[in-house]
Each structure stands twice: as structure tokens, then as C-alpha cells.
Structure prediction request, 113 residues.
Amino acid sequence: MAARILPVVKLATKVTIAGGALYVACDSGLLGSSEQGSEALGKAKAAIPPAIEEWMKYFGLEAQLPTMPKVEFSPVQAWNSGVRWTISSLSEAPTKANDYTNQCLQYLKDLTK
Prediction:
């Protein structure tokens, strides 16, 4: 009987952890707009170093951690930049194909002269 319950308990644990992670992500604004994501990043940057120091003191570790590097990255500016580039390239594709075809024809005409 324990052999039948163990897979169910494992599955329930995994679903609970995944659901909790999804709830925390939604609640903190990570799955919202770019402004909400930027705010969540700012909150995380402010909360993580003090939490690490507190846990290190709690466990008796007094090692000096390196300072966090200053990364100048704005999620608002980078939001969907890959999608924009792809759509832009796809919209320019017919024009580029026409230009390359004309260049190829001109090259072939020059070769046959």
C-alpha cells in the first residue's frame, strides 16, 4: 500500500511547489507588464543582500561576499525586442528578396555580355 501512496505524495509535492512558485511570480508582478517586472526586480535587488547577510549570521558564517555589480539593464527597454526585430525582418523580407533578385539578374546579364 505504501508503494501506491508514494508516487501520489511525490506528485502532490511537485504540484504544490509549482503552484506556490506560480503564485509568488504572479503576486510579485513577474508575469505582468514590463513596469511591474521592473518594480519586482528593484524589490528583489533591495531585499536579497540583507536576507543573505541575515542567514549568514544565523548559520555562523562571517565570510565577506563580493559586492553586487551594477547592471544597467532596463526590462522596459528590452521587452520583446527580439519579437520586434523578427517582425521587422519579416516585413522587410519581400523587399529584400526583390532587391537580391534584381542584383542576381544584373550579375547574370553582366556575365553573358
Q: What stands out?
A: The helical segments are 2-28, 34-59, 75-78, 81-112.
